[in-house]
Amino acid sequence: MPLALLALAIGAFGIGTTEFVIMGLLPEVAGDFGVSIPTAGHLVTGYALGVMFGAPLMTVLGTKVSRKRMLMLLMGLFIAGNLLSALAPAFGVMLLGRVVASLAHGAFFGIGSVVAADLVAPDKKAGAIAMMFTGLTVANVVGVPLGTLIGQSIGWRVTFGIVAALGLVGLAGIARLVPDMPKPEGVRLRHELAAFKNVQVLLAMAMTVLGFGGVFAAITYIAPMMTHVAGFADGSVTWLLVLFGLGMVGGNLVGGRYADRALMPMLYVSLGALAVVLALFTLTAHNKIVAAVTIALIGALGFATVPPLQKRVLDQAHGAPTLASAVNIGAFNLGNALAAWLGGLVIAAGLGYTAPNWVGAALAAGALLLAFVSAALERRDKVTGTVLAGSVTAEQRTAVSS
């Protein structure tokens, strides 16, 4: 794998850390600014909304710029947002800093996926995408716990200052290691938008929303589920999330490896197994050891879908994949928000802390169904194309003989 992928992975590590570390630092931030925990929670919501809307917006704004330069500009925006958060004199300013940093998130992963895939041979594209996303998964194992510890021990502002420094390292790496890769000639914004007329692109994005949404339906409520149902102590939630992150790392690498060999079968296996494991989590959540194993499996199976789904979008939006790739990153966050909301509804309805697992299982099963539909449509199109090609050939033979 090219060293340029390391630079992309470092940038992904910083972005992954800043996205999730705030969850462990909400009490400290709320206390410093004199706001309630729910109000401080807007820092999470604001970031998610920024990713959703920023992904297409920043990608469209970057259509006139080379991909390498756009990646550098996005890292600059990420650094500025985290510095603003670290130095914020008021809560509103910190919220602005979070939104500024989030604007870089979707476009970075979207454009980065295209760049990573272009750096390697066609049969290694999903593996290259997985290598970049490794930075995001490792952030959940190392960056988030370490950032939380630093924030609780020294101060949350130090954490965001360190994240900004990580952004500088990522920026330097991209400038030094990523080759200058200009946009393909003749590709305009209308070509990028035309990708959304392709039903296969839309199906892949819908699979992204439902598939990873299934993961977040369960993981969003992991703390009350593990403390009230499994009987873990409050302090155990941190290492359970580390276990989830380790599963993500492994699943990401496996998904990237096998998606290059058999993309759709990889999706069938990972989505089907994810639906089963999430359904079983309703039962396994009552036993500490089995619950811990299940959490790792959810992380592994959930992230095993990421490289193949991202590659699926790139393949189907061939010729002008940048905007579609970025929007698919926003689809992950849309799925997260939708799943968290649905999970909250079933808990509020009095169905218990394990009820979101059924929601997650249903979402993952829905993604699996869409995968079968997508494959069926693809087979039909191939048969139709073969028939049409045969008809044209027959007409040509008739014309020649005449």
UniProtKB/TrEMBL annotation:
Matching Pfam families: MFS_1 (PF07690)
Assigned keywords, A-Z: Cell membrane, Membrane, Transmembrane, Transmembrane helix
SUPFAM superfamilies: MFS general substrate transporter (SSF103473)
Transmembrane spans: 42-61, 73-96, 102-121, 128-150, 156-178, 199-224, 236-254, 266-283, 289-309, 330-352, 358-377
Gene Ontology cellular-component annotations: plasma membrane
Principal location class: membrane
PROSITE patterns tied to this protein: MFS
Molecular function, one GO term: transmembrane transporter activity
Residue span, Major facilitator superfamily (MFS) profile domain: 4-379
Keyword tRNA-binding carried by entry: no
Subcellular location field: Cell membrane
The keyword Chloroplast appears for this protein: no
Protein name: DHA1 family inner membrane transport protein
Organism: Streptomyces griseomycini
Upper taxonomic lineage: Bacteria, Bacillati, Actinomycetota, Actinomycetes, Kitasatosporales
